[in-house]
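Re: duplicated header lines in exported structure tokens

Our pipeline writes sequence and tokens for each protein into one text file. With two proteins the header for the second block appears twice in some exports. Here is an export where it did not happen, for reference. First protein block:
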Amino acid sequence: MSHAFQDWGSGASLAEVRSRLWSWMHEGTEEGFLDHALALFRWQALHNVPYRAFLEAMRVRPEHISSLEDIPFLPVEVFKSHDVKSGAWEPKDVFRSSGTTQTISRAQHWMDDAGLAWYAQVSRLAWQAQWGGPVADWAWLGLLPGYIGREDASLLTMVADFMGQAGALEEGMLMHDHGELNARVTRHFEDPQSRPLMLFGVTWAILDWLDSLVNDRGWLNSVPWRHVTLIETGGMKGRGIEPIREEVHARIKAVLPDIHVASEYGMTEMMSQGYAKDGIHHTFPFWVRPLVREPRDPRSSALQNRVGRLDIVDLANVHSCAFLATGDAANLTPKGLRLLGRQDHSEVRGCSLLATP
């Protein structure tokens, strides 16, 4: 490790660590990823009480960790039972998972007083790193029922910020009003100089909208769909059987053959996002690193071109925990990360080490 990052130690404040990371992230280069990951790991091992307890329960000494794969990844379920914070700051804002009818408890991702501004900075930079331009290069619409009205929804916060950056907040968010959505799409393209349109939608709402369009061929033929990108995310949220992504995209293309279909991957527990421009293979900004492991061995070597459980490093999670063991099944391919849904009985082994009495 370079000398600059050996000195983080116990004395560095959250603001100092965040500033170091932002300087590197803003440079736009992957060089130094391991140095920053190890430095942040050692700092969080000192300053994050639940993570430190997890490491102690696993008999891991942070000073002996020298590779990414040797770092223990905290099960995301811990966000449901503990305040996962790095530092002694007072919680100011929180993101909560949406939950379903089967959900017993909801994950909570607490932030300090700079947390929301940090989330906005990171989300914009993640978008630009993967899409090649600032969010203001696009116009935005959101079809996000289930999120609207929830100030603690990270997805809604991000899309609203993107709209604000684009200077078109009046285009706004929509819930179930398909007629209004169609009208706003029409109005957008009445301007011959209009920007490309990004429609961010939760999966089940997109499918409902498509069902409403089947008998509206006149309107469908009036829209230049090649200038529209539909970003689906969020799944079915308990509304029926969860289809695989290819099935969702086939249904979209059956109604809107010229539209560009993409997908977003994010979690309540993450500050950063990944995107699949082809709708299937997700890539991430360079400060995020996905690893796929054997489901029954959380310390196994990373797998390539094999299905396993997804671990993810998000170095933007400076205030919480940057090393997360998810319950998602995935396959890391040369084209990107293919997400295959939740694993059955997805609670990761090791979570019980932090069980609340």
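Second protein block, exported in the same file:
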Amino acid sequence: MSSPPTARLRSICLALPEAAEKEAWGDPTFRVRDKIFAMEKRGDGRISLWCKAPPGSQAILVGADPENFFVPPYVGHKGWIGVRLDRKPDWAEIATLIRRSYCLTAPKKLVALLPDEASK
């Protein structure tokens, strides 16, 4: 049975077109056409989400709330953001971050299937 944060992440991620879950490095990763757009990490004493972020977002989020946002190892230099899930996460904000990450990763045809993106 999965933990509550994992279940919430799974629900958000797998609702996106062609999203799939695959375990990697001992943690769940969420992918679209085998490209990772989000992953749950359980290392270094915390539970967190790592996801892609638009240019400049990482510095803004970490600067505004360093208790909940951080630069993750390995992918942080590519602009990814880490979000603490072991506190009281704002799930609406997390859903927005995941959706943005998906849009940065997925092919345009899949992004166009999202309700808000179809009109763009």
